[in-house]
């Protein structure tokens, strides 16, 4: 490469330096910044479309899922910067400051490394700053691992210099829908290319603990080498469908970096300001703000609008998760247009084949190239979310009659499908063992079999019938309203007859195929109570509801959250990862604490007047957000009997419904009760 900078990059260098010198100090960062020293914590950013970047604050190679991903396909695995022949390893960082829009590693001698993923751009932007009078030699070695998220190939790569960009591609690769086959790297400094290809064999202890994706084989093609002149060294890693597209994106990243960073910060701060709660507890307020921002990062545009279920292996839309998340992710924050877009997007995928046993259902998994309908409850969580959207819009004085009419038509098909394909003679919905949210092992090998009539499924269906009745009444369709009312009353009678055990004053978890009651104590009884809107005739009497809540609180609420099974049950598995004795999916819904369950439990406790107990349930969520796990986020699960060092790598590290239910419960239940 020529020693003289091309005119284009000279301009980019000049603009970048001016932008750096003229950009005012980011005063808002101190209000948000979480400072991490040791141990290392995970950090994840998204572009709000289909690309994300996952890394560690001050470590490397702990997870195979770290890197730059688009539509469940990895491209850039990692990078290594050397300054004057010495690697600037993240483990050397004295501290790391993280906000929802950037991460900054602070090294000795005043060197700082800033990591930023812009909104709506498939590129990663890195900036290193140093003293203005120093001239250093730098070397950047990219590490690529172009693959689907759950594959471990040993492919061949082609790396070439095209103009002022390094372009890398995997030879013979046909990536899946939405993935980008080309990676371009551009710098704001002059550089030369030194090819030194080598393949690596890496061990990832966090994933090896799960015996899943514990080894990978990334590739290092060589190094970009140059002299660091001036204060700022910027590099852009961009993805594209062609080399030209990737290169152009990289150049745009260098040119617009500071503007895009300020825009992302402004968007997030505006969002949070519009949904602010003042609880009087600074740590709780801070955790709440972070939860809103981190959840917003999962509201994506991968295949239409939707919400990623979580990181690392749920980077797609799960219908059930999305619909449970929607009130906390959009409605309480006033993002009605986003809610509508998500709701309308899923309606496009409704099963309309009248010969299908899943007639009327919405998919439980949506990702580029795939739809999957194996979930009985997701459709009825959708109905609940859609009705809440319509109600929120009307209360704001802006009713959405167009969506209401769409929804009414879709809801009629949902009810028809349920009645013709799933309902028994009493109006209870039948389903498979693995078709509820406790779906570990699926239908082939369910570890928490709940067929064929689960308690929360019946409550959700009853709620859906009441919604259908109400909407039909509002639109003047008396015949339909009467039909739905009759079906709802039938469902309510059957629920009381078959799910309430008068001898033990207990609501049972599910009915077995022979109609017998399953007596395991699980949090699904709380889901059943809270899934039904308070405006409908209740499924149980007030004293029965109180009995259900009291038992669930006494038996299922642990100091660190709500467990999926009574610890006194012989099937209780205290640790998710105990692979010498059982496969981890056996513990998933048989002992693991699920953070999302805190939301329904808070709702139930507030309904029976136990507000102080409900408020205390936020403490583990606050600690998780600010002090442990992924920075600013809440993970999926914890062990039923957690380890002292919190080294629990079984579940997703960054889970949407965990944060959504915290936000929703704070707004809908605790704020009215406590006057926030």
Description:
The protein has 676 residues and is of the alpha+beta class. Among the domains are: 263 residues, Beta-galactosidase, Chain A, domain 5 (Distorted Sandwich); 119 residues, no CATH class. 37% of the residues lie in helices and 23% in strands. It is built from 18 helices and 34 strands. It has a nine-stranded antiparallel beta sheet with strand order 1-7-8-9-10-19-14-13-12, with helices on one face. Strands 2, 3, 4, 5, 6, 11, 15 and 18 form an eight-stranded antiparallel beta sheet that branches. Strand 26 and strand 27 form a beta hairpin. Helix 5 packs across helix 17. The longest helix has 31 residues. The chain is elongated and about 80 Å long. The relative contact order is 0.09. The N terminus is likely disordered.
Q: Rg to the nearest angstrom?
A: 26 Å
> End-to-end span in angstroms?
61 Å
What is the total tally of β strands?
A: 34
Largest sheet strand order: 1-7-8-9-10-19-14-13-12
Q: Portion of residues in helices?
A: 25-40%
In brief:
With 676 residues, the protein is an alpha+beta fold.
List keywords for this structure.
alpha+beta; Beta-galactosidase, Chain A, domain 5; 676 residues; elongated; eight-stranded antiparallel sheet; 23% strand; disordered N terminus; nine-stranded antiparallel sheet; 34 strands; 37% helix; 18 helices
Q: Helix and strand layout, with pairings?
A:
Blueprint: H1 7-22, H2 29-32, E1 34-36, E2 42-46, E3 51-56, E4 67-70, E5 73-83, E6 86-87, E7 95-99, E8 102-106, E9 112-116, E10 123-129, E11 135-148, E12 157-162, E13 165-170, E14 182-187, E15 192-199, E16 202-203, H3 205-208, E17 215-216, E18 219-229, E19 232-240, H4 243-273, H5 282-296, E20 299-300, E21 306-311, E22 314-318, H6 319-331, H7 336-347, E23 365-367, E24 370-372, H8 378-395, H9 401-421, E25 453-454, H10 455-474, H11 478-499, E26 500-501, E27 506-507, E28 510-511, E29 517-518, H12 524-531, H13 542-556, E30 557-558, E31 561-563, H14 585-588, E32 593-594, H15 598-607, H16 611-616, H17 619-627, E33 637-638, E34 654-655, H18 656-674
Antiparallel strand pairs: 1-7, 2-3, 3-4, 4-5, 5-6, 5-11, 7-8, 8-9, 9-10, 10-19, 11-18, 12-13, 13-14, 14-19, 15-18, 16-17, 20-21, 21-22, 21-34, 22-23, 23-24, 25-28, 26-27, 28-29, 30-31, 31-32, 32-33
Helix pairs in contact: 1-4, 4-5, 5-17, 5-18, 6-7, 6-8, 6-18, 7-8, 8-9, 8-10, 9-10, 10-11, 10-12, 12-15, 15-18
């Amino acid at each position: 490469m020529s020693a003289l900078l091309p005119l284009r990059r000279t301009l980019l260098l000049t603009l970048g330096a001016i932008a750096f010198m003229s950009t005012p100090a980011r005063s808002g960062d101190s209000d948000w910044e979480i400072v991490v020293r040791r141990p290392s914590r995970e950090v994840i950013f998204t572009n709000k479309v289909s690309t994300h970047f996952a890394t560690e604050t001050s470590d490397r190679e702990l997870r195979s899922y770290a890197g730059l991903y688009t539509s469940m396909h990895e491209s850039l695995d990692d990078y290594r910067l050397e300054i004057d022949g010495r690697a600037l390893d993240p483990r050397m960082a004295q501290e790391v400051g993280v906000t929802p829009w950037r991460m900054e590693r602070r090294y000795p001698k005043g060197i700082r490394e800033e990591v930023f993923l812009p909104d709506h751009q498939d590129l990663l932007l890195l900036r290193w700053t140093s003293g203005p009078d120093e001239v250093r030699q730098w070397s950047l070695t990219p590490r690529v691992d172009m693959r689907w998220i759950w594959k471990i190939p040993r492919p061949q790569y082609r790396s070439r210099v095209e103009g002022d960009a390094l372009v890398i591609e995997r030879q013979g690769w046909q990536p899946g829908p939405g993935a980008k086959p080309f990676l371009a790297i551009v710098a704001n400094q002059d550089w030369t290319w030194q090819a030194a290809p080598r393949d690596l064999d890496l061990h990832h202890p966090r994933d090896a603990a799960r015996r899943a994706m514990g080894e990978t084989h990334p590739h290092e093609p060589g190094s970009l080498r140059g002299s660091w002149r001036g204060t700022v060294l910027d590099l852009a890693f961009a993805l594209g469908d062609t080399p030209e597209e990737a290169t152009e994106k990289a150049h745009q990243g260098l040119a617009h970096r500071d503007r895009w960073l300020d825009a992302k910060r402004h968007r997030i701060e505006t969002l949070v300001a519009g949904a602010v709660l003042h609880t009087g507890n600074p740590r709780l307020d801070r955790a709440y703000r972070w939860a809103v921002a981190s959840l917003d990062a999962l509201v994506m545009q991968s295949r239409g609008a939707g919400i990623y279920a979580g990181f690392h292996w749920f980077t797609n839309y799960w219908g059930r998760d999305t619909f449970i998340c929607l009130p906390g992710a959009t409605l309480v924050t006033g993002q009605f247009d986003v809610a509508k877009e998500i709701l309308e997007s899923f309606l496009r995928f409704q099963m309309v084949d009248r010969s299908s046993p899943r007639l009327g259902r919405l998919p439980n998994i949506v990702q580029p190239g795939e739809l999957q309908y194996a979930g009985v409850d997701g459709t009825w969580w959708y109905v609940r979310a859609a009705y809440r959207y319509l109600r929120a819009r009307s209360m704001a004085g802006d009713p959405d009659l167009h969506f209401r009419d769409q929804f009414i038509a879709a809801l009629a098909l949902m009810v028809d499908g349920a009645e013709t394909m799933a309902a028994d003679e009493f109006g209870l919905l039948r389903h498979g063992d693995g078709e509820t949210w406790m779906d570990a092992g699926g239908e082939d090998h369910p570890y928490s079999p709940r067929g064929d009539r689960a308690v929360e499924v019946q409550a959700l269906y009853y709620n859906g019938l009441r919604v259908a009745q109400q909407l039909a009444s509002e639109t003047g369709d008396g015949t339909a309203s009467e039909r739905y009312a009759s079906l709802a009353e039938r469902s309510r009678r059957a629920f009381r007859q078959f799910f309430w055990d008068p001898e033990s004053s207990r609501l049972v978890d599910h009915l077995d195929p022979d109609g017998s009651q399953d007596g395991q104590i699980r949090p699904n009884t709380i889901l059943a109570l809270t899934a039904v809107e308070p405006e409908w005739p209740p499924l149980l009497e007030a004293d029965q509801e109180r009995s259900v809540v009291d038992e669930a609180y006494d038996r299922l609420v642990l100091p660190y959250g709500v467990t999926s099974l009574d610890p006194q049950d012989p099937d209780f598995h205290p640790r998710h990862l105990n692979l010498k004795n059982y496969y981890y999916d056996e513990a998933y819904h048989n002992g693991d604490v699920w953070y999302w369950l805190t939301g329904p439990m808070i709702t139930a406790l507030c309904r029976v007047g136990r507000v102080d107990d409900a408020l205390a349930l936020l403490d583990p969520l606050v600690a998780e957000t600010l002090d442990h796990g992924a920075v600013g986020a809440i993970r999926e699960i914890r062990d039923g009997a957690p380890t002292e060092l919190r080294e629990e790598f079984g579940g997703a590290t960054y889970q949407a419904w965990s944060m959504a239910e915290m936000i929703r419960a704070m707004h809908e239940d605790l704020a009215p009760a406590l006057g926030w």
